[in-house]
Amino acid sequence: MLEIKHVSKTFNPNTINEKKALKDITLTLNEGDFVTIIGGNGAGKSTMLNMIAGVYPIDSGTIVLDNENLSLQPEYKRARTIGRVFQDPMMGTAADMEIQENLAFANRRGQKRGLGWGVRKDEKEDLQKALHRLGLNLENRMSDKVGLLSGGQRQALTLLMATLKKPKLLLLDEHTAALDPKTAKAVLELTKEIVEEQHLTALMVTHNMRDAIAIGNRLIMMHEGRIIYDVQGEEKKNLTVEDLLIKFEQASGEEFANDRMMLSK
Amino acid sequence: MDISSLLTAIPGAISQGILWGVMALGVYTTYRILNISDLTVDGSFATGGCVAAVCLVNGLNPFVSLLVALVAGLLAGAITGFLHTRCEIPAILAGILTQLGLYSINLRIMGRSNTPLLKVDTLFSKGKELLNLPSQYVAIIIGVVLIVLLVACMYWFYGTEIGSAIRATGNNERMVESLGVNTKTTKMLGFMIANGLVALSGALVTQSQGYADVKQGTGAIVIGLASIIIGEVVCGKRRNFMVRLSTIVVGSILYRVVVAMVLQMGLSTDDLKLLTAVLVAIALTVPVMLEKRNQNARYKAHIEG
Predict the structure, then answer these.
(1) Which CATH number goes with the domain that contains B91?
(2) Closest CA to A226 of A7, A2, A1, A3
(3) Which of A108, A155, A166, A173 to probe the B interface (max B CBs under 10 A)?
(4) A77 contacts B160? CB cut-off 8 A
(5) What ipTM does the predicted assembly reach?
(6) SS3 content of chain B, % helix, strand, coil (to 5)
(7) B91 in Cβ contact with B31 (< 8 Å)
(8) Which terminal Cβ of chain B has fewer Cβ within 10 Å, N or C?
(9) Could you give the CA distance from residue B211 to residue B129 in angstroms, rounded to a whole number?
(10) Please, what are the domains in chain A?
(11) pLDDT tens by residue, A148-183
């Protein structure tokens, strides 16, 4: 489904700020894989997602999604088949536009946009149904501006928008990190439901090791731009947080201290 | 102030406000919808006037000459759009570059710095024959018809898929990209539409005043901003889109009325640009000051309460 081969990325090459963000990453995802990604700050988790989405060009290697070579495609072209939810809840929606306008905009992902109505009358009902499943009572506020919603509501809406047109790949970049614990849990539950329902292939970066173990069928640990641990199936199910910490120390030769990850055991 | 001479000046001010209001609608497209300050306006406004004048002098139909001016404006916007989106020059600088270049182009178009339209038919001279009314009223009637058409067109367009994409670009560029739309294209379209409207306005003003001048666009961007801000201050910001578009034209008219008033009070036309600049600076400052004052008041009320 997704094939990443020997992808590297260096920011600010040949300067004092040079940062090798990704070092020779190779990763293959099967259809329906739901992969959680963990790692310390600066491990390259977000950079990897951004590379797949096409936010920055890669220095070397290839990215192939469903037999289509994305390596040199601009972000907006890749976005036709890739859904994304960002860490910042403000990032995925247009605040000054109505809820239904945002949804209708997402509903046209990958289609040619012309001079037809931005929100068609006959699609309103479908959008309303889709909103209903969020359980946030937003279906009665279709004409409200998105800017009136809370961060959690906006993130749930973004998730819905990212999956409204079934994407070939869903990228979740710590999408619950900026939410309060209760809302984060709700959005995470929703994520699980939607991914399962639509049999999506997804990559989810998280700082929470418990979530990383509990969710999805595969787990990847990154460190200094490399994938240092890749586990799936039964073996992943039986993992504990302690196992992960030991794995990290073994693979990196460092202690997992002094890091945000410790807090979220 | 001489009230009766002011009253006679008002219809002229209103007609000017309406015709310049078309330009303000263009400025609104970049400044508010795309959230970009596009300084091409001063150049493209004159381009519209110059192109229309040359068309009229060469015997083209006044209405067709408006359309030619509109197309010239679209092209001018495309140049700024290209410089900004493809060459990645900051929007303000891209606009200044185009504006500067257009000055020479406008001179080339006309072959001189001023083209009088004394013996040619314009939209307004024809309208005057037809309606048999004083020219200010003819200008108001023609202006109102055009504005209603334009506002209806814009209202429709920004409700379409492409229009929504342009609005969303001004709102949240990253979201637009992440949902598969090229923001380079939407911005390009925005620049083109904006300058198309600006040039159309330039052509209308040229036809109504009876000449085109290569300097007629100087300060147009600030007048456009003044119209938008005056409209928002007077009519409020949070309204439906149709009302918001109309308030811009209302703002443009009010601006002209204020100008007519201060001229009646004895201010020299030479000082007008300074007055406009000060007016816009104040209008932009007042909301910031008010917010700060409210914030302080809330804080004090909290302590005392």
Answers:
(1) 1.10.3470
(2) A7
(3) A108
(4) no
(5) 0.90
(6) 80, 0, 20
(7) no
(8) C
(9) 19
(10) 2-81+167-263 (3.40.50.300)
(11) 999 999 999 999 999 999 999 999 999 999 898 988
